[in-house]
Give the backbone structure.
Amino acid sequence: MQPLIISANPHNEYYFHEGCHILELSNRPADNEISIARARVEPGQTTQWHWLLHTTERYVILEGKGMVEIGALEPQAVQAGDVVIIPPHCRQRISNTGSRDLIFLAICTPRFRVENYCSH
């Protein structure tokens, strides 16, 4: 691996069928240990149930308010500054309960790979 600075381009944000908008900040084969994406859930929206195979995911809530459901835990309210840790193979979804966008980082180890994404 070589030193590198990756500049975010907000025009690269896309809608992911799960129910949120994604801006990939870092997801490169040369840095297989981690990926970082900014996720945005619009007010009143809930992402679909999903889980990641062989991948731990962490949500770092940056803005807004939400309700997260992971595994067998009771739904939990989240807000800016909270960190949600989601082990591999653990079902998850998040709802925006506020009046503005819910924005969080989705940090995956190892990096997010679409073939490890599962939903129902």
